[in-house]
Specification:
Blueprint: E1 2-11, E2 14-25, E3 30-34, H1 39-42, H2 44-54, E4 63-69, H3 81-91, E5 103-105, E6 108-109, E7 115-116, H4 121-130, E8 135-139, H5 143-146, E9 153-157, H6 160-167, H7 200-212, E10 216-219, H8 226-230, H9 242-255, E11 269-270, H10 278-282, E12 283-284, E13 289-290, H11 292-295, E14 300-303, H12 311-315, H13 318-323, E15 325-329, E16 334-338, E17 342-347, H14 366-373, H15 378-382, E18 386-389, H16 395-398, H17 407-424, H18 438-444, H19 449-462, H20 466-482, H21 490-498, H22 502-507
Parallel strand pairs: 3-4, 5-8, 8-9, 10-17, 10-18, 11-14, 14-17
Antiparallel strand pairs: 1-2, 2-4, 6-7, 12-13, 15-16
Helix pairs in contact: 2-3, 7-17, 19-21, 20-21
Length: 508
């Protein structure tokens, strides 16, 4: 007795269709799964046997062989359970209806036969849709995660017995209605830029960072508001597009971090602790999962107490900060995840935090300060577009009753600048100034003779690297866009240079 069903496994963000073949033969009692299964798939035989038995069906004595094809692809994930169970029930004749080849079964089975949730449903279904699959039987609990995919049929089920009755025509399972996502609603935040007293220079830097997607570093004493303002950066970022929502949701689905199995509609904000390992930051493990840099995709990665991170953890950020993606290589495979985010780093000027203070005495030796700051290498500094020194908040600012600018007002200017960039780069594969390549910089950022002399002088004085030089040009373009000017002016360039000169003070 032989049968075949379809399921799916993930490799990074890509799903691959898998043939689940079941063969029941006479012989000694045995249950084998072949086709390069990992431990979670090998264990499914116990879940499947119990689920079938507790659903009121019985497996005849004999030899059961489950083959997962293609055999050269590693199979992992509990979502294969349901397809194995259906294939076995087809083989023994419990299910009379043979689903067509475009029907896919996804779901983990509990011992009592319930069909329960699993990680990575959205990227699986999107991938299979692109391969031509149209009909999906999935756990009821994840229907809100996948009912945004257009052009497919989704049938949510709660129990194996329910699925068997449906396939045999005893009952009818209602097809899930595809939902059209409304992203026009205003997102409400509990925090706002109007909460920030003083720090006008830092607010301006944050606005520029949001407008062009630029990385930012803050140096200042404890209590100056670095963390407070960093947490408010997502409130001035433009709303996610539908495509960006899908990208974020796919990553969170794979990582098992979706809230209520719903679409991610807010810009992510990730703030890993400084004790985080390199693997937790960039992703990895035996079966590579997304790390913090991928969970921050299309949002903000905030690294507080930046020098307190291990040297190795800091250095692994180089590729994702520059490329907008991270590649995790293993002996048998290589997986790439999205990691296009704005990096915000915060640090004290020294271990005690009082170096350079006019009111507090620094207790650190020069060697301690040097050792503290040297954790941040030149290549990492080169990848940070904006460097800002944060001063302690003055009492007059704290006690002021002035009504300050809200996040909504700032976001309007940011969105206007982003629209200019989208229009400018509509024929390019980029969406903001921070992602400009060297070729695109030459094409879109034109300096007149006077500005060329200014930047030449700054290049020699501050000993900028080639990467720093390009960062200044990108920053200049963003400042001009915020000003609504297609022409780059002297004040735009001078402001951009000012945001790159801090490294000479602390790391020069």
């Amino acid at each position: 007795m032989y049968s075949k069903t379809k399921t799916c496994v993930l490799n990074g963000l890509n799903g691959y269709d898998i043939d689940v073949e079941a063969d029941l033969a006479t012989g000694l009692q045995a249950f084998n799964i072949v086709g390069l299964p990992d431990l979670s798939v090998k264990e499914s035989k116990e879940r499947v046997k119990s689920a079938i038995s507790n659903s009121g069906f019985s497996i005849p004595p004999g030899r059961v062989t489950i083959n997962l094809a293609p055999a050269n692809l590693k199979k992992d994930g509990s979502q294969i359970d349901l397809a194995i169970a259906v294939s076995m029930l087809l083989a023994i004749g419990v299910i009379e209806y043979l689903p067509d080849e475009k029907t896919v079964f996804l779901g983990e089975l509990s011992l009592d036969g319930r069909v329960i949730t699993f990680d990575g449903a959205l990227p699986m279904i999107i991938s299979l849709k692109e391969l031509g699959f149209k009909k999906f039987y999935i756990p009821f609990a994840i229907k809100n995660e996948v009912n945004i995919v257009q052009g497919i049929e989704i049938y949510p089920i709660s129990h194996l017995k329910e699925l068997v009755d449906c396939l045999n025509g005893v009952i009818e399972i209602k097809k899930e209605e595809i939902v059209k996502v409304n992203l026009d609603e205003e997102i409400k935040y509990d925090i706002d830029f109007s909460d920030i007293k003083g720090q006008e220079n830092l607010k301006r830097a944050m606005e520029i960072s949001a407008a062009g997607g630029h990385n930012l570093l803050m140096v200042g004493p404890p209590g100056s508001g670095k963390t407070m303002i960093a947490k408010r950066l997502p409130t001035i970022l433009p709303k996610l597009t539908f495509e960006e929502c899908i990208e974020c949701t796919k990553i969170y689905s794979i990582a098992g971090k979706l809230k209520n199995n719903k679409l991610v509609t807010q810009r992510p904000f990730r703030s890993p602790h400084h004790t985080s390992s390199p693997i937790s930051l960039v992703g990895g493990g035996k079966i590579p999962k997304p790390g913090e840099v991928s969970l921050a995709h299309n949002g903000v990665l905030f690294l507080d107490e930046f020098p307190e991170f291990s040297k190795q953890a800091i250095e692994v950020l180089r590729q994702p900060m520059e490329d907008g993606k991270v590649t995790i290589s293993r002996a048998n495979s290589s997986i790439t995840y999205y990691s296009n985010f704005v990096t915000v780093c915060a640090l004290n000027p020294c271990p005690c935090g009082n170096y350079g203070s006019q009111t507090e005495k620094c207790t650190c030796s020069q060697l301690q300060i040097q050792r503290y700051l040297s954790k941040i290498s030149g290549p990492i500094l080169d990848r940070i577009d904006i460097q800002v020194e944060v001063e302690p908040v003055k009492f007059d600012d704290l006690s002021s009753k002035e009504v300050l600018e809200t996040s909504f007002e700032i976001r309007k200017r940011v969105e206007k600048a982003r629209k200019i960039q989208l229009e400018r780069y509509k024929n390019e594969k980029i969406y903001n100034n921070a992602n400009l390549s060297a070729r695109q910089i030459k094409k879109y950022i034109i300096l007149d003779e006077k500005l060329e002399k200014i930047i030449e002088f700054a290049f020699k004085k501050f000993k900028f690297s080639a990467r720093s030089f390009n960062k200044i040009l990108k920053l200049t373009r963003t400042i001009a866009d915020l000003d609504g000017s297609e022409e780059i002016k002297e004040e735009h360039l001078l402001e951009a240079i000012r945001y790159r000169s801090l490294s000479n003070k602390y790391w020069g």
